[in-house]
Amino acid sequence: MREDVSLATVAARAGVSVSTVSRIVNGQTRRASPATVARVRDAIEAVGYRPNPVGRALQRGQSQLVAMIAANLDNPAMATIASSTETALREAGYVMILCDTHDRAELQDEYLFAMRAQMVRGYVLVAAVPSPGLSELSTSGAPTVFVNRRNPSGSGPFVGIDDAAAGAAVADYFADLGRRVPAVVFPRLSSSASRDRVSGFLARLRERGWSDEAIVRADGEGRSHLQVGYDAGARIFDGRDRPDAILCVSDQIAYGVNRRALECGLKIPGDCELVSIDGTPLNKWVAPWLKSIEIPYAVYGAEIVSGLQLIWRGEPFGERLLPCKFG
Fold this sequence. Notes:
Largest sheet: 6 strands, parallel
Keywords: DNA-binding, Transcription, Transcription regulation
Domain HTH cro/C1-type: 6-50
Number of strands: 12
Oligomer: single chain
Pfam families: LacI, Peripla_BP_3
Structural class: alpha/beta
Radius of gyration: 26 Å
Domain HTH lacI-type: 5-60
Protein name: LacI family transcriptional regulator
Number of domains: 3
């Protein structure tokens, strides 16, 4: 649409008032004759006028903007979630604003504060961290869906997987393979997702006959999962009992562990099997040696938007746990 095309342009071509065009554009046709409605619609098509959704939202006191605040867009999993959500929102008539907090609480609060000034209609929090602003958002009743990590400030609508079940599935896989020395690597700055994956893994190994002392645990410091895996790998592979099977709670942790294993002269998966929980499409290109629990991030967007629409209509939306599989 040309910048100079407006309601007035349509009105002049159709020979009616601007208010008549405005009513017809907004679906209020009862006050106009069928002939007038047809003439206005023909004029709209002829001049290429397109209604401004933001302007219409302002008139209704509603915004078409939805804020996604993600912890780390360097992570391919979060980038895939963002892409699928943007597509689903656009198809539903909304515009997504994307913010990256770099897993920092103070930056998360800056974005939450800024979004309140933007007439944001809803929030999508991907891997949120505890912060004062998040606590305030949670108590305000603003339409919010939490993704991957549950609300660290309390309860709230959630889209993700059964993380404990995913960890348990990896434990069964190692046990069925006959692996003897299992290990798990996770970030020291843990989240609900990491904790549940680790606890599900440990609980199932105990059920399968391992003692706590026989299960190797290693964490890594910092926000970079690549560095977490690399640092934790040093402690694992330098120990007396080297593991022959390792659960990495994310793909990027597995990349870091693999790098350390190669430096120690180990072969993956020959000397040690690595399994991650993520399974992004990038793995088949950069990590064909990595077996993963694949999370269907590409369909998260539709579930997130469906949840927001339920909330906007005042209907309940608790959680949506999506199926995942070995890949």
